[in-house]
Automatic annotation (TrEMBL):
Residue span, IspG TIM-barrel domain: 25-295
Name of the protein this chain belongs to: 4-hydroxy-3-methylbut-2-en-1-yl diphosphate synthase (flavodoxin)
Domain IspG C-terminal stretches: 311-412
Catalytic activities: (2E)-4-hydroxy-3-methylbut-2-enyl diphosphate + oxidized [flavodoxin] + H2O + 2 H(+) = 2-C-methyl-D-erythritol 2,4-cyclic diphosphate + reduced [flavodoxin]
Cofactor binding annotation: Binds 1 [4Fe-4S] cluster.
Keywords: 4Fe-4S, Iron, Iron-sulfur, Isoprene biosynthesis, Metal-binding, Oxidoreductase
Organism per entry: Luteimonas galliterrae
Amino acid sequence: MSAAQPLPCHHEPAPPFGPAPRRATRQVRIGNVAVGGDAPVVVQSMTNTDTADIASTVKQVAELWRAGSELVRVTVNNPESAAAVPRIVEKLAMMGIEVPIIGDFHYNGHQLLANEPACAEALAKYRINPGNVGFGKKRDTQFAQLIEFAIQYGKPVRIGANWGSLDQALATRLMDENHLRADPWDASRVLREALIRSALDSAARAVELGLPAERIVLSCKVSGVQELIAVYRDLAQRSDFALHLGLTEAGIGSKGIVASSAALSVLLQEGIGDTIRISLTPEPGAPRTQEVVVAQELLQTMGLRAFTPMVTACPGCGRTTSEFFQELAKVVQEHVRAKMPEWKISHPGAENLTLAVMGCVVNGPGESRHADIGISLPGTGEAPAAPVFIDGEKSVTLRGENIAREFVALIDGYVERRYGRDAGA
């Protein structure tokens, strides 16, 4: 048998590292938040309260904002909810919460804005679905009325087409045209085209009516991962409008998280997307804020933004039969997330802090040295000592019953020294 031959050496350039440059778009101002252009990808969410219930809606908006949602959408579906919007915005402002509130309109939005001008003024943006803004001859008239309100009150709009409420007249027309093709498209491609055309044609009509293109965001939501990727790749090539990404009806729990992350990460890696929402169905008893946390973690793990210190932790194996390292990782992650609203103001930059909680000697010291602060806990059979590494150097060894409290104190002290107002003075 001949000796193994060495692999040929190629000198081809390595593929580019990191996400593609962001797609160039028009920038849209939504209240005090910029979307598109050179602005970072913005996280948004939506309440699931009855908007007419002012107290519960204010409470949930505040929770979403504190979790990091930079835009919050509310349902405006009846006169009571429209009348409640100005009071909701006023109460939030009194609490020092100036998050832009977006009104989600379907079917009767033109009537609600006409009858509640204070609602039209209080909202930071209107979301319009071209598939159900009106039907038959009323569609164009009612769409125009909504755009005229946006022009009158100086508001941006999101023209959001949705797979589940597609403009059936447009879909039928495109199907008929497809039958005349020499090489007809399959049905799914025709429906994707109908979704894209619904958004683009509606945006073009809004511009004709006088709404500046810099006040338009587009979205084309579907519930399938591959369909969403295909739709947005096409949409991104055919316009320079800012784009909102989201997998509609993503699902509950890990399914919704995985599906949304799979679709959005591909598009974000290609530079597509200016604002995102993770549309999770909350598990019973789970907070609505989970969708905000997932959106932030998606952007942060991709290196697109930093929101809160992230904790690297090993998954555990037979060397880590104790659950202490899992418990410590959870304590640390919850601590820094709870502190972040305060640190964001008093210790800017703390969101870039990297932490590691490792469970044994195999990778523990190495991973801990790579983090700003890391701890390597003793695995099964190892000496009952937990070395702590700060900025790559061993700093102290923790022992005993108070490791969690002492490690959290070390983190707080590090944040104060590195990111506090007197840091570097």
